[in-house]
Amino acid sequence: MPAAAIQLANASAAYDGRPVLQGIDLTVQPGERVALMGRSGVGKSTLIGLIHAQAPERVALVPQAAALVRTLSVFHNVYMGRLDRNRTAHNLRNLVWPARADLDAVAAVLARVGLSDKLREKAGALSGGQQQRVSVARALYNGRPILLADEPVSALDRVQGGLVLAELARTHETLVMALHDVPLALAHASRIVMIAEGRIVLDAPAARLDAARLRGYYADAESLA
Amino acid sequence: MRSRGLTPAAGYAAVSRWIAALGLAALLAADLHVTSLHPWADLQRLLGGLVRPDFLAVEAASILYTVAFAVLGVGLGAGAGFLLAIPFARFRSVRIACALLRAVHELFWALLLMQVFGLSATTGILAIALPYAGICAKVYAEIIEEADLAALRALPAGTGTVSAFAYARLPEVAGAIRAYTFYRLECGLRSTLVLGFIGLPTMGFYLESAFRQGRYGEAGAWLLAFYALIGTRRLWVRGWTLPLLAAGSVLVLPATVGAVEIGASLARFLGHDIVPAPLRGAALLAPESWPATGAALWAWFRPILTGQILPGAVQTLVLAQIALVATAVGALLLFPLTSRRFTGPLGRPLGRVLLVTLRSTPEYMLAYVALQLLGPSMLPAILALSIHNAGIIGYLLGRHADGLSYRPDAPRGLNLYAYETVPRLYGQFLAYLLYRWEIILRESAIFGILGVATLGFYVDAAIAELRLDVAAVLILATALLAIAVDALSRALRRSLRIADLPVRLAGPHARPAPEPLTA
């Protein structure tokens, strides 16, 4: 059996002394596609932060909120995904006068998320959904084996979101994504991890779950509130 | 008063009352006599000069010198400030050095530098560059600190420091840094004017001599030329003109007046002139002589402390406090002039021109003019400080007032002013006022050179007597006073939760979310 892609054992996290996550045991094997689910505020983003801290050098990150540099072009924002694999002099030169080869490579990635016409536009001038796709393109261009994404398609409609998730699965070996859309999660994940009150309350293959069961976790919480 | 849990509104009232009460107390202690015989006749002649300016007397060369000093001084200061801004947050020593650099006024720097570099371009440029490096380092560091760093987290692990800075940090802050630097250039132009008053060949030099000799037509022409220079700043200071401005500035710099051997005079200045007199030639390495040297040092320092530093500091604080209250009143009265709701679309441009003129007029020059009209007392300095600073704060408040959204059935006129506008602007107003406090204090010290007995008066006297060691101690005391007031102002702003930097010219940035503390 190959080494696990991610291994968290009894991990916990706290904000200002207030515990957010406790006793998290999570092992992800290479090739798995994991959807992290749960109500907002249960600690999904914190868990993503913990996973990122585990193996930053093997991770391509799609953070929550697109996290783009608004004053730079779409090309530069996507190119940032590979800053670590180019020499500093080349990076600085690309900031002023982008190299043809890099422009072509980034344009190819942008085509996969349907943004090939936006290469030279300012990132800040794009709509929310477009910015989110630029953020995804940056992770695709990064190309590291573990894709770690925090609500990567929350600003897209279900059809578009499905296409983007399929693209992510095509390039990256292992996927760990926080998702809130139940049908999308069932369609694109091989394993569902449900979090509630700082703990993992469900961890099962997607094939053995259905939409009604997953919705139950959201409905329960609402009736408790 | 409760020490914690003060609501900002209660805090606003308390702080305002304290400032006003201290201002009134200072007013009782201040010398405000009008000693001039014919102030109105002089004012009439002055205004006559502005109406009939003698433009033929304006020498183009001195305008070029003015621009050259400002461009090179601010350029050098901003460049050094940017380099200092990077370690600013991490090293306390850098922060202290920057605080000292900016706590000493340009004019004091010039007086010190003149002892080494003579009446030369180097003196003029460094006198601007040194304090501006301290100011720019602080402001750039705050801009870099507050920038949105979300993109930095998304960079792949292992990205080099330079690449990360160039891609994820610099583009976020470049706009704000550029806007602030251009604004500083305008301040630099005003500073060069002050340098002219001590003999450097800027426009201030000619302005001062025209005033002194009563040639008001010439003085008016110089003044209008200066307003034109400041008013057109946005036309000639642009990204692409900067290299041309810098290169041109180097070419037109004036020659040094008289010959100066810099190496020798620097060694004499640092090794002898500013060393306290009892320490010169003392055997500092022999422990048995320390008690005697210490006693001599105290005997030297005590009269400076009791006869100059303490009375000078009291007068400086008195002047600054009155000017602060007058600035506050002036700003609250003036800001409606630039606000659409109060002046309408026709009056507002006029109000704006008035306030921009007020803030473009260097306070030192206002004080000089008022001194000619009213005679020597604190009054000219108070007028100058409050007119200049009320213009600055009023202009900024007016811009904020236009940004407020009122309900459709909002009242009008004075009711709107008292019930809607002022209450909503008050936090911002206090932030601006507290921020200008330190600047007003530094200027108050400087006005001693005009004859008010603030710290600058003693500095000027010490330099005139060539007692540079005394001057250095006095300047250090002034700097420490400014740093103390700055710290108090910052503490007040923080406790009122109005700690944001008011000179920020760029748009608001979203604050990054706190990083999770992993246990």
UniProtKB/TrEMBL annotation, chain A:
Annotated ranges, domain ABC transporter: 6-222
SUPFAM superfamilies assigned: P-loop containing nucleoside triphosphate hydrolases (SSF52540)
Family matches, as Pfam families: ABC_tran
InterPro entries: AAA+_ATPase, ABC_transporter-like_ATP-bd, ABC_transporter-like_CS, ABC_transpr_LolD-like, P-loop_NTPase
Keywords tagged on the record: ATP-binding, Nucleotide-binding
GO MF term list: ATP binding
Keyword Kinase in annotation: no
PANTHER family for the chain: IMPORT ATP-BINDING PROTEIN, TRANSPORTER, PUTATIVE-RELATED
Name the UniProt record assigns to this protein: Macrolide export ATP-binding/permease protein MacB
Gene: macB
UniProtKB/TrEMBL annotation, chain B:
Cited SUPFAM superfamilies: MetI-like
UniProt superkingdom: Bacteria
Keywords associated with the record: Cell membrane, Membrane, Transmembrane, Transmembrane helix, Transport
Main location class: membrane
Transmembrane regions: 63-86, 107-130, 188-207, 219-236, 242-270, 282-301, 313-338, 377-397, 445-464, 470-488
InterPro entries with a match to the protein in the record: MetI-like_sf (IPR035906)
PANTHER family: ABC TRANSPORT SYSTEM PERMEASE PROTEIN P69 (PTHR30043:SF1), PHOSPHONATES TRANSPORT SYSTEM PERMEASE PROTEIN (PTHR30043)
Protein name as annotated: Phosphate-import permease protein PhnE
Organism listed in the record: Methylobacterium isbiliense
Gene this chain is encoded by: phnE_3
